[in-house]
Amino acid sequence: MGSEETKKHPKTHLQLNPNWAQLQLKVKSNGLNKSSKHTKNPESETHNSILGKRKERLEAESDGSKPSPLTPINDDFSLTDVVAMDCEMVGISQGNKSALGRVSLVNKWGNLIYDEFVRPVERVVDFRTRISGIRPRDLRKAKDFPTVQKKVAELIEGRILVGHALHNDLKALLLTHSKKDLRDTSEYQPFLNRNGRSKALRHLAAEILAVEIQNGEHCPIDDARAAMLLYMKNRKQWEKSVKDQTRLEQKQKKRKPKKKPKLKDAAIVKAAVTAS
After folding, report:
1. Rounded to whole angstroms, how far apart are CA atoms 179 and 177?
2. Would you give the DSSP letter of residue 125?
3. Keyword Nuclease: yes or no (predicted)?
4. Is the pTM of this model over 0.85?
5. How far is residue 113's CA from residue 48's CA, in Å, rounded to a whole number?
6. 114 φ, ψ (degrees, to nearest 5)
7. Tens digit of pLDDT for each residue in 126-139?
């Protein structure tokens, strides 16, 4: 009897309803899609990390917001013929003396090539965090001053150095730089106000670049990028003015100064005038 039932209904419990089979396929498909969303793609991560700041601009554009002019538009981190530098200071001694606390350099594309916190030789009494953005924890493992000084000297040697009030930064670094290779946005004539005085970097950035910087704690990277962008936008005219100034100085040096009469000759002339 059992063998007859088996012949009439051969393994009916293994048969699937077509609707159920479709449902299983749909569930399986959804599961695969979800797992693929959560699976990290190493190639994608590497690509995103390489993009760096460029990725930030692409994201800003996709959001519909206007990207910052200070955001680099390429991935060239090479040491270019022009570099921009900005430093932040901390207070030493009684707090009224300044010492280097951080230095940042960018290349002509605005990409960061050096950024280090610096441990001053003397004890810091005022971190000036409200302006410098530097905190005690930043200097605990910071590099010592001589190491940073040597590295910066190597990076700027033989290159055009851009910045704002560069004399302050170079003084803090105890470095000098050839005057012909300095491009200071605080001294460039078209950037001065009507009275011939320097404008603050934040004002130049707002007026010329339409970007806000130094709202609260300063970022030396942004400040260096702003100075570089100001230079690059005016590079052709700026370099022309430097060449013209150099030629003028060379002409002045070639001119022979008028010889002053010798003391003996002057006395003779004076005596002759008195006798007449």
Report:
1. 6
2. E
3. yes
4. no
5. 19
6. -165, 135
7. 999 999 999 999 99
